[in-house]
Amino acid sequence: GTAQIGVTGLAVMGRNLARNLARHGFRVALHNRTHSRTESLVADHGDEGTFVPSEGLQDFVASLERPRAIIIMVKAGQPTDDVIDELVPLLEEGDIVIDCGNAHYADTRRREKELKDKGLHFVGSGVSGGEEGALNGPSIMPGGSAESYQKLGPIFESIAAQVDGTPCCVHVGPDGAGHFVKMVHNGIEYADMQLIAEAYDLLRSGLGVSPAEIAEIFKEWNSGDLESFLIEITADVLAHIDAETGEPFLDVVLDQAEQKGTGRWTVQSALDLGVPITGIAEATFARSLSGHAEQRKAAAATFDQPADEGFVKDRQQFIDDVRKALYASKVVAYAQGFDHIKAGSDEFGWDVDRGAMATIWRGGCIIRARFLNRIVEAYADKPELESLLVAPYFAEAVSDGVDSWRRIVAAAAQAGIPTPAFSSSLAYFDGLRRKRLPAALIQGLRDNFGAHTYQRVDKPGSFHTLWAGDASEHEA
Ligand code: NBP
């Protein structure tokens, strides 16, 4: 075989990834279960590079030089297992199977182990950036063995997005590390979007202005610390007018958001690992709440609607407060996400470099932002940073914004505007910052009703108090 890399699964993502590879000079073997997809790719884009199409999987495998590198880009879940099962008997020792779909990291761990036992490399790779990224440069998060990265690295690094000459691709770590990091990335994306949505809601209700006017505010924010892809497209969506009705686009769209699964996976994993990713969790729950149409209708009919239009007195102060609250809450969401990556890395022995993750998210992906440079710097200064919140730059930004943050959360509560992500991020910050928490009372209660014992501040060991007896303390 002469092809350097193969792609099986040529729906929108696989097709664009294959074209990206060919445009970068790689000879790309092509395969899809339904052959017409392969034919149309070659017919439409055959002139972009060297494609080696095959109708059957056997010919596809034979068309690749060894050791083979085969990207699977099919629907996540069972279809991926089906393709692996068909492919594996055709492969030889040392070949590399790469799953670029949105797999759950636990599936990736299982598949990696199964293929390793057969002498094959399995690489679960996160690919972010949607269709556009796949074609023009995604952020790529490959897991798997270091050996497989020796072959794949140069290929992936050349097709990835580039920021300041640095490719948005790095070997994340063994087995499921790449898909785990991609999952947390998606979770952070949930939090980022929820925070933006809350900021919009506050501005619209508080100022009593149109979405188009709020678009101008977001445009301005995009020239400062908040500069990011999501803030940029927020301005576009807010300014958009529906062609049919002439109304603001936002006012003709149903206010129910989907959650396809990665947010849920992130929250489930965080619960298992004991990481408080409250921003991502609230963002995921906020989408669920929005989708409970019947309950919302019943509640809206039951309760008075607070008069929340145009409650703001000082317009400029309010806009600045929302901006600072948004930034501080965003820092919290990222701090929590990076804690989650650390917890996964420790649990599974991946040794993930968090600074490198911030580096490869600077381009190609949905959460690309100026802000990520600050995260890169924070981990460069201190790789074992306890929390992003205590890195000097972020500590200063949050301290500077904390009064605004409190005013906004208070104003939202007063006006009856739900800001679960803003509010829970502030509560998280206060929980982390506060010298004493009421958890001492929780320890006392647990010891009282269940003899669960407690620790003391002044001496080591576990203790139990005879609550129902003479109230004396005993070492447990
Ligand atoms: P889809 O997720 O819609 O899957 C369609 C592809 O899967 C087609 O090539 C189809 O073949 C193939 N396929 C299915 Br379905 N079942 C199969 C089976 N049993 N055996 C062989 N092939 C099978 O494609 P997509 O939207 O391009 O997404 C591909 C992957 O990328 C997914 O995992 C998705 O979650 C992920 N994704 C990522 C992003 C991102 O931003 N990173 C965006 C969108 C999607 P056929 O043509 O014969 O039906």
SS-derived structural category: alpha/beta
User: How large is the share of residues in beta strands?
Assistant: 5-15%
Strand order of the largest sheet: 3-2-1-4-5-6-7
Largest sheet: 7 strands, mixed
Topology, number of strands? 11
Give a topology summary.
Layout (H helix, E strand, L loop, with lengths): L4 E4 L3 H12 L4 E4 L3 H11 L5 E3 L3 H6 L6 E4 L5 H10 L8 E4 L5 H12 L4 E8 L1 H7 L2 E4 L3 H14 L2 E2 L2 E2 L9 H31 L3 H11 L7 H11 L9 H4 L9 H12 L4 H14 L1 H10 L12 H34 L5 H7 L10 H11 L10 H24 L4 H14 L5 H12 L12 E3 L7 E3 L1
Parallel strand pairs: 1-2, 1-4, 2-3, 4-5, 5-6
Antiparallel strand pairs: 6-7, 8-9, 10-11
Helix pairs in contact: 1-6, 8-12, 8-13, 8-15, 9-10, 12-13, 13-19, 15-18, 15-19, 16-17
Short description:
The chain is an alpha/beta fold. The protein contains 20 helices and eleven strands.
